[in-house]
Write a structure and sequence with these properties.
Oligomer: single chain
Structural class: mainly beta
Radius of gyration: 20 Å
Strand content: 35-45%
Distance between the termini: 20 Å
Number of strands: 34
């Protein structure tokens, strides 16, 4: 699909999520930020272009690398200048990938339209413009229906906790202000908006000055990590409800509304508590939450703590809203749940992709309520996978799931030092969308340990035509 849209006379993306699911083009390229901050390689981060077209002679390879001009940015998540929320606007085109930096605060805009296989840097917003809005630690970027761009921030200009939203002009790619008209929240992270119901929901990570350099469990007890969801009035730009998730919702990260714009519910992954929490609008108009999946911790020897949480670090929904997928970065598995019954997800698939508890490793599981033995280390094309499953991206038709293994450079270094030495990997999982289930494609592997400047940490993945986590339908 072209950046302009799937249909003649339309704007970017697809008219509905089911249109994308049923008639979307198969992905041929993936854009992946690759990080060198906190590693042994003194080079800038870069955007890698991956060839995922099985009919291409360069299939399963990095075919282009676009280094950014500065070192130490920590590229992380990405978004688009336009998406399906602008489908009705023929003046808009999906032609710039937005790359916020988690550490430096820079925002890069990459031209993906001129040559999708070899993107080039178009423009940069420097940290001073972001700090001028009393913001830092930028994370999620979403295109808005009015053609502008919004990016969530997690810190104030000094790196202390502050949840705010940066507005960027979609034509000039300059900072135009902040979105919220009420007080900023204590913490920030992800967000998803749904104008049909006049609502936006946002989540929390923690204090950047604390998580930037690693994870200290004591900081959780000291209140430096979040445990709340924030409900916003979309038209008024004001927070109208805060939901304290308690100990069931420690560090609520990735947040997904159902794709169906008529729906008034979704899910958020509470990373440290290792729970999936459903949020929904009640009959009284107030928003409520319900824990629907609890991944139990494992008692262990040879690890930093006596019990290891799963650490759910990414999740997504298939475009037909049939399946929920999430990754357990520490345990090492990806799970697939049928969510036809939204309040009672049913486990339909599970696959192990590395992790901290593989046989022969330094960690011994002493008590496990789910398994009777530790999983085998994953070896693909003769190479052992280091790290655990982290970012995931699903094909539009729900038949292929891509996964990378790096979370965040300082945390990678702390929990998976092998990632720093050997680099991250990108893998592909074949999905049975009809009946449920997942199998590893053993013919696909992209090893970022073999990059020209040295091992790199690969993170979030984007398709040029949009995907399950970039596009919002109105």
């Amino acid at each position: 699909m072209s950046g302009a849209g799937c249909c003649e006379g339309s704007g970017p993306g697809y008219a509905t999520p089911l249109d994308a699911f049923r008639s979307g083009s198969r992905e041929k390229l993936l854009y992946v930020p690759c990080i060198y901050r906190s590693t042994d390689v003194d080079q800038p981060d870069y955007l890698a272009t991956l060839d995922v077209d099985p009919d291409s002679p360069t299939y399963s390879q990095v075919i282009h690398r676009l280094p950014v001009p500065n070192k130490g940015d920590e590229l992380h998540h990405s978004g688009w200048n336009a998406c399906s929320s602008c489908f009705g606007d023929t003046s808009r085109a999906r032609n710039r990938l937005v790359l916020p930096s988690l550490y430096s605060g820079r925002v890069y805009f990459v031209d993906t339209a001129t040559d999708p296989r070899a993107p080039k840097l178009d423009k940069t917003i420097e940290p001073e413009s972001v700090n001028g809005m009393n913001m830092s630690a930028l994370h999620t970027a979403h295109c808005l229906a009015d053609g502008n761009i919004m990016i969530s921030g997690m810190g104030d200009k000094n790196g202390e906790g502050r949840g705010s939203f940066l507005l960027i002009d979609g034509k000039t790619f300059t900072v135009s202000g902040t979105w919220e008209k009420s007080e900023a929240t204590r913490f920030g992270y992800d967000f998803w908006y749904q104008p049909r119901h006049n609502v936006m929901v946002s989540s929390e990570w923690g204090t950047p000055n604390k998580f930037w350099h690693g994870f200290n469990p004591a900081h959780v007890a000291e209140g430096h990590y979040g445990k709340s969801l924030h409900i916003w009035d979309w038209k008024e730009h004001k927070e109208i409800q805060t939901i304290d998730l308690g100990n069931d919702g420690l560090i609520p990260l990735e947040l997904r509304f159902l794709h169906d714009p008529d729906a008034t519910e979704g899910y958020v992954a509470a990373a440290l508590s290792s729970n999936m929490i459903r949020f929904y609008r009640g009959v009284d108009g107030k928003w409520a939450v319900q824990k629907v999946i609890d991944v139990p911790g494992k008692k262990v020897d040879g690890w930093a703590l006596p019990e290891m949480p799963a650490l759910i670090t990414d999740c997504l929904l298939s475009l037909d809203d049939k399946y929920l997928y999430f990754s357990n970065w520490l345990h090492g598995d990806i799970r697939q749940y049928d969510i036809t019954d939204r309040a009672n997800p049913k486990l339909t698939g599970q696959i192990w992709v590395g992790g901290s508890i593989t046989k022969g490793g330094p960690v011994t599981v002493t008590e496990d309520s789910e398994m009777t033995e530790q999983p085998e280390a994953l070896v693909v094309k003769g190479k052992t996978v280091h790290g655990g499953p982290q970012m995931i991206q699903l094909s539009l038709d729900g038949k292929r799931l891509y996964v990378t293994t790096s979370l965040y450079s300082a945390w990678d270094k702390q929990f998976y030092p092998g990632l720093i030495k050997h680099g991250a990997m990108a893998l592909k999982i074949n999905v049975d969308h009809e009946n449920g289930g997942m199998t590893l494609d053993k013919d696909f592997l992209i090893d970022f340990g073999e990059e020209p400047h040295g091992p790199a940490l690969a993170h979030e993945m984007r398709y040029p035509g949009g995907d399950c986590t970039s596009d919002i339908w109105l």
